[in-house]
């Protein structure tokens, strides 16, 4: 029987490696088959009430590794850490003394590399119930904060507990007439006792120029990225947002282009479940198709289709994907006349790259200084080509749907939902019907990490994402009839 506490302690054993494109600490968790104790009866009962029609209870996922729409070097924050399970059997005094010395050295390295390293606590069970039944304010440990032992409670108490406050300008999508779909996302969510309380469809999905005002600046500057602008310069934010002044920047898509009135969307993750799935035709049959990170298409058209309407990313995931998946044919991000790019503002570099892309000029500052955006987005682009997710929207999604236990860890500020999760939840808040392909399912152990890998590779759980929590959410949404999750 797996003990979560022992598993968390074992996860502390890490090695630092130098790998392109950045020198960041990485921690590796080898394939393990771990089982969890059964959920208490009261939790099982609550879960049955919160998940899906018919009161069916999902089976617990094996606690090994996670897989989702945005993973690998394409993980969202760039501080990906693989966990290495510690070895056992060192019983002699010599080894005990050596272990103590290594432990002391490791503790010192945590202090030195604390800004880059995130400790991980493996999930202890079906934690979606906490998100479904008890949505709470999002608490983030600010970066650069010292955390002596036992200081977490004091730190959390010192942070401002703010409720979610949407901007005054709602997304235009929410003013439309009721959907003509037989059963839309909105109707299904509102009919569900738990999800009906969680979904707030008036939340602004995108940020554009009219959102930037003194009230918004003063509020968001108190939140850490990606949920706000803490530590970012006023000039960097304002100079970018003032360029997002077209009507196309206010809505994800124009409903006038869909005379039928029912907009069906497919969100395609990169999970190995799609290899051999022959779902390409079904994916392309949707009105709009979202893809993300290392979206390899050539050679896998029969499984993943060819259609692409939106490409979602952060600058970090985009660049890392180009490096990590080049061997699989991902040599440039998708480019097409009708394709729109969805920026996830995880850092100031995303705002700066977006500004440079609209202006068609090299990046003037920061870690991407001198980079030419045209090599990513093509030579002919304008502001209408780009969408920027609202920090309020990211805050709302994390607070209500994916409030992970990782937020309570020492470096919880590194946590955010994966790129795939953000794209899927974006579609759920803008489209009438949503189908998810290539996302983690209960039998994820049967598939490789990505669908384009020649040899099967074990799925990887990254410390800045909570893939198992995301898996529980997708399963719950599927059982509730709010979306369709491809499974096999």
From TrEMBL:
Q: Where is the composition biased (Low complexity)?
A: 56-65
Q: In which pathway does it act?
A: Protein modification; protein glycosylation
Q: Which GO terms describe its cellular component?
A: Golgi membrane
Q: Subcellular localization, per the record?
A: Golgi apparatus membrane
Its membrane topology, per UniProt?
Single-pass type II membrane protein
Where is it mostly found?
Golgi
Gly residues composition bias: which ranges?
66-75
Q: What Pfam families does this protein's entry cite?
A: Glyco_transf_29
| Catalyzed reactions | a 3-O-[N-acetyl-alpha-neuraminyl-(2->3)-beta-D-galactosyl-(1->3)-N-acetyl-alpha-D-galactosaminyl]-L-threonyl-[protein] + CMP-N-acetyl-beta-neuraminate = a 3-O-{alpha-Neu5Ac-(2->3)-beta-D-Gal-(1->3)-[alpha-Neu5Ac-(2->6)]-alpha-D-GalNAc}-L-threonyl-[protein] + CMP + H(+); a 3-O-[N-acetyl-alpha-D-galactosaminyl]-L-threonyl-[protein] + CMP-N-acetyl-beta-neuraminate = a 3-O-[N-acetyl-alpha-neuraminosyl-(2->6)-N-acetyl-alpha-D-galactosaminyl]-L-threonyl-[protein] + CMP + H(+); a beta-D-galactosyl-(1->3)-N-acetyl-alpha-D-galactosaminyl derivative + CMP-N-acetyl-beta-neuraminate = a beta-D-galactosyl-(1->3)-[N-acetyl-alpha-neuraminyl-(2->6)]-N-acetyl-alpha-D-galactosaminyl derivative + CMP + H(+)
Q: Which family does it belong to?
A: Belongs to the glycosyltransferase 29 family.
State the protein's name. Answer: alpha-N-acetylgalactosaminide alpha-2,6-sialyltransferase
């Amino acid at each position: 029987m797996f003990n979560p506490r022992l598993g968390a302690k074992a996860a502390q054993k890490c090695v630092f490696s130098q790998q392109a494109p950045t020198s960041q600490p990485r921690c590796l968790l080898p394939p393990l088959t771990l089982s969890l104790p059964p959920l208490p009866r009261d939790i099982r009962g609550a879960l049955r009430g919160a998940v899906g029609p018919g009161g069916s209870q999902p089976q617990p996922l094996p606690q090994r590794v996670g897989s989702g729409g945005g993973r690998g070097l394409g993980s969202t924050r760039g501080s990906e850490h693989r966990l290495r399970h510690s070895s056992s059997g060192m019983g002699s005094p010599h080894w005990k003394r050596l272990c103590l010395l290594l432990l002391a050295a490791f503790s010192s390295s945590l202090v030195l590399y604390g800004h880059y390293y995130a400790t991980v606590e493996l999930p202890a069970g079906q934690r979606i119930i906490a998100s479904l039944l008890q949505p709470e304010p999002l608490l983030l440990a600010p970066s650069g904060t010292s955390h002596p032992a036992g200081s977490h409670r004091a730190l959390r108490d010192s942070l401002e507990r703010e409720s979610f406050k949407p901007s005054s300008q709602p997304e235009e999508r929410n003013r439309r007439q009721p959907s003509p779909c037989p059963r839309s996302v909105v109707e299904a969510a509102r009919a569900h006792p738990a999800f009906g309380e969680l979904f707030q469809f008036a939340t602004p999905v995108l940020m554009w120029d009219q959102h930037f005002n003194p009230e918004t600046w003063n509020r968001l500057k108190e939140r850490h990225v990606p949920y706000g602008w803490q530590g970012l310069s006023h000039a960097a934010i304002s100079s970018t947002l003032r360029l997002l002044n077209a009507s196309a920047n206010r809505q994800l898509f124009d409903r006038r282009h869909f005379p039928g009135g029912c907009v069906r969307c497919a969100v395609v993750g990169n999970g190995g479940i799609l290899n051999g799935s022959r779902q390409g035709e079904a994916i392309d049959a949707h009105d709009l198709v979202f893809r993300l990170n290392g979206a390899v298409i050539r050679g896998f058209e029969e499984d993943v289709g060819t259609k692409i309407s939106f490409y979602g990313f952060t600058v970090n995931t985009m660049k890392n994907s180009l490096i990590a998946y080049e061997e699989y044919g991902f040599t440039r991000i998708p480019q097409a006349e009708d394709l729109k790019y969805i920026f996830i503002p995880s850092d100031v570099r995303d705002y700066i790259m977006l500004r440079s892309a609209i202006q068609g000029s090299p990046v003037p500052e920061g870690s991407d200084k001198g980079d030419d955006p045209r090599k990513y987005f093509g030579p002919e682009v304008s502001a209408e080509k780009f969408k920027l997710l609202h920090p309020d929207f990211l805050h709302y999604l994390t607070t209500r749907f994916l409030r992970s236990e990782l937020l309570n860890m020492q470096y919880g500020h590194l946590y955010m939902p994966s790129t795939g999760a953000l794209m899927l939840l974006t579609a759920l808040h803008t489209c009438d019907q949503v189908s998810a392909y290539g996302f983690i399912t209960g039998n994820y152990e049967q598939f490789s990490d990505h669908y384009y890998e020649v040899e099967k590779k074990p799925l990887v759980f990254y410390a800045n994402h909570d893939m198992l929590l995301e898996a529980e959410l997708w399963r719950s949404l599927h059982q509730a009839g709010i979306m369709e999750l491809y499974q096999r």
